[in-house]
Design a protein that fits this description.
The protein has about 280 residues and is α+β, with helices and mostly antiparallel strands. The protein has eight helices and twelve strands.
Length: about 280
């Protein structure tokens, strides 16, 4: 068994320092999404505490809580100082009685950051001294994997998430999306317009959605191409989801007929982004 303590000490973490392991999870907001898309906000959140939880602490080893007790390592931070306040805005998650000056340690743990997953030892305590109990490293992933595959109908991927999944060839997504053909939906969150498409190639939905990544979001579709040509970053507005699964044995014509049915139901030829 490899522990996070062993891993970090082998990288030079000073055993003589006072170090806390910290697991962030908050039912008031999606911290994982905040960290992924707005690190400045997340670091303010981490620095702001209602109680002096980092008192007499030299370093914190920071994690984001995932499902169950799984926790993703996001860095080591030096505790430089603290500002104590008499009052704070309780509605602001980045405000608190204690504002810590935390400095991220760079160029030491970068190849571990966002990749190492540990099993948190105590679900009740979100912060504890590093010497309290060893915590097992249960996985080292290829990169930040925000959305884990659970079910075909339980997700909506924005384009950046889809690109990350395809570029990194995440095994769970590739296996499941390659296993089926289907009818999918692209939602343009900027205009509210919809595009209905069908995936009936040999690689199923995975193959078709990979085409969108390769073409910067257009997939070769006429109206999407126009949007991308006018603004090469426009795909950031696209959200991908699955409307219907189709068997791998379905013919191309049968799949196209199903696609046409959904276009008619959603009116995407008249009011959306389909043009046939």
């Amino acid at each position: 068994m490899i522990t996070i303590q062993e891993l970090l000490i082998n990288r030079g973490l000073n055993q003589e320092s006072k170090i806390k392991l910290v697991r962030h999870k908050d039912n008031r907001c999606d911290l994982y999404n905040k960290y992924r898309n707005d690190k400045e906000w997340f670091y303010k959140y981490q620095s702001s505490q209602a109680k002096p939880v980092f008192k007499d602490t030299d370093y914190i080893v920071s994690f984001i809580g995932e499902e169950g007790l799984s926790s993703r390592f996001i860095g080591v931070f030096k505790v430089n100082s603290v500002e104590e306040k008499n009052t704070y805005n309780t509605d602001d998650l980045t405000d608190g009685n204690y504002i810590y000056n935390l400095e991220k340690i760079e160029n030491v743990y970068e190849d571990l950051t966002e990749r190492v997953i540990i099993k948190w030892s105590n679900p009740i305590s979100w912060h504890q001294w590093i010497t309290t109990k060893e915590m097992e490293v249960i996985e080292i992933q290829p990169g930040l994997h925000y959305k884990q595959f659970n079910d075909y109908y339980d997700f909506i991927l924005n384009f950046d998430e889809l690109k990350e999944i395809v570029d990194n060839q995440y095994k769970d997504w590739k296996r499941m999306l390659s296993a089926t053909k289907g009818i999918y939906l692209i939602h343009d969150t900027n205009t509210g317009k919809l595009y209905v498409g069908s995936a009936y190639g040999e690689e199923g939905i995975w193959g078709r959605w990979s085409d969108y990544v390769k073409t910067n979001g257009s997939g070769g579709n006429k109206m999407l191409v126009e949007l991308i040509n006018n603004d090469h970053t426009y795909a950031k507005n696209f959200q991908f989801s699955i409307l219907m699964l189709l068997p791998k044995t379905i013919t191309n014509d049968e799949a196209i007929n199903k696609e046409r049915l959904f276009k008619n139901k959603l009116g995407t030829n008249t009011f959306g982004l389909n043009c046939n």
